Amino acid sequence: MDAARIAGYFKRKSILITGSTGFLGKILVEKILRVQPDASKIYLLVRGADASSAQQRVQEEVINTELFGLLMGKHGNGFQPFIQEKVVAVAGDIIYENLGLETPVLKALAEEMDVIVNIAATTNFYERYDVSLDVNVMGVKHLCQFAKQCPRLKMFMQVSTAYVCGDVRSREVLILEKPIESGESLHEGRYLDIDAELRLVKEAKKELQNSPVDEAACKTERKAMKELGLQRARHFGWPNTYVFTKAMGEMMLGQLRGAMPVVIVRPSIITSVRADPLPGWMQGVRTIDTLIIGYAKQNLSCFLGDLSVVVDVIPGDMVVNAMMAAVAAHSEEKGQAVVPVYHATSSLRNPATYKVLYESGRRHFYKNPRVGENGEVVPTKEMRFFPTIARLRLYLMLTFKLPLEILHLVNLLLCGHFSRLYNDLNRKYKFVMHLLDVYGPFAFFNGCFDDINMERLRQAMAMKTPEDHMFNFDPKAINWDDYFTRIHIPGVLKYLHK
């Protein structure tokens, strides 16, 4: 397994990619086009009213991004003709049967397809339960149904998340690369029935929709659906709706795959591009990036966490390299007894702690101090970390909430004289509480992701030429301190910090 074999695999292949407007999807599209210009077609399924609007979305949200600068430079004036020849935008949506496509279009697409890569997902931790089920579960079902109509299909790749393992704060555990079984629950004695969950949501929405439709009713429905998702996730042992429904998506794939060649890739927290095509490039705020941005804005003076805890992160380009290698390695493996699962993670081979991330951030801001609106240098302050939720809540109550309530009362007595100050401080307080609620469980995540399958794939790689290193996905190659300081944190500030 070397660069020539991986790149060569995609020659004259037709590939359907969902989620191409997202971070990982863009990296995959760019990489295939750059390393294998003789790929037949790359079909990008995107939401759009028609083919024209889908094409516009792909052009604006994928092709015109900075990520494609290297490819653009390589082709020069021939870049757009090359893209028009190779990239086909398809107006559809995985939440619908037949992907929302007309029968003739669906059949023509099925006849062409060699590889399907499903990256599309709603990644909001507290998304509406109905929306999460539609995208993360039913989307897998509809793609499987389509895949079975593809006579040339050689691979169906499902991109999941390593955190389908659930909440392991209370114990140190090695999380294996094994498929999720049908009906499996993380709470013993509970059977997870996907059909029952779909019926539950349907009935809940039916009850909510009995009231008159207005803005208040819509708000009530949104809140109820979010709370239902969180409730059902925790009932079965998952910490949030996102990882719960991604686990169900894997379960759905296991039920429907039949003899189809399938691979599941589970990345941990995906971070900015490390090497190529554009170091530091990223899109979409990830868990740790929220902390970096909060620190940069000086909205965050304290947070929950143990600096000795490992934060499992992996650069986006390494994830894509692993995905492409896995596709080439398992192509046409029909009738697999067990679905191959790959952890694209770092905690076992090259763990990075929160301390490394924090020290890198602090060093970066000392060397590159922020400047306020008045042109004065904003001093870099130390952050304080609390080892338990109870201690942090008490600290926040005494340090922020109590003075805020006093300020609120004074503001009322003085007819709003301190409104601006109160609103600013209240916003910062709510920001910290939001982070605590959403990301708190990950601050004490003690799991270590086994990657024996991924290591076997790495050992099969021949790293003999510079081209071979274009497909490097070995976390041991990363110097975390250098990566965070020189690449990731500047990338977050450039692409995400507004």
Describe the structure.
The chain has 17 helices and 15 strands. The protein has helices spanning 3-9, 23-35, 51-63, 69-75, 79-86, 103-112, 129-147, 194-208, 215-236, 241-256, 287-296, 316-330, 354-367, 389-413, 419-443, 452-459, 480-495, and strands at 14-18, 41-46, 87-91, 115-118, 155-159, 173-175, 262-267, 269-271, 302-304, 313-315, 341-344, 370-371, 377-378, 384-386, 447-449. The longest helix is centred in the C-terminal third of the chain and has 25 residues, at 389-413. It is globular. It starts with a helix and ends with a helix. The model has no long low-confidence stretch (mean pLDDT 91).
What topology does this entry show?
Layout: H1 3-9, E1 14-18, H2 23-35, E2 41-46, H3 51-63, H4 69-75, H5 79-86, E3 87-91, H6 103-112, E4 115-118, H7 129-147, E5 155-159, E6 173-175, H8 194-208, H9 215-236, H10 241-256, E7 262-267, E8 269-271, H11 287-296, E9 302-304, E10 313-315, H12 316-330, E11 341-344, H13 354-367, E12 370-371, E13 377-378, E14 384-386, H14 389-413, H15 419-443, E15 447-449, H16 452-459, H17 480-495
Parallel strand pairs: 1-2, 1-4, 2-3, 4-5, 5-7, 6-15, 7-11, 8-10, 9-14
Antiparallel strand pairs: 12-13
| Beta-strand residue fraction | 5-15%
Backbone shape: globular
Q: What is the helix fraction of residues, given as a range?
A: 40-55%
Number of helices: 17
Helix/strand/pairing class, anyone? alpha/beta
Kindly report the average pLDDT value.
91
Largest sheet: 7 strands, parallel
Widest β-sheet, arrangement of strands: 3-2-1-4-5-7-11
Q: Could you tell me the radius of gyration in angstroms?
A: 24 Å
Identify the quaternary structure here. Answer: single chain
Q: What distance separates the N and C termini?
A: 42 Å
Low-confidence runs (pLDDT<50, min 5 residues)?
A: none
The total count of strands amounts to 15
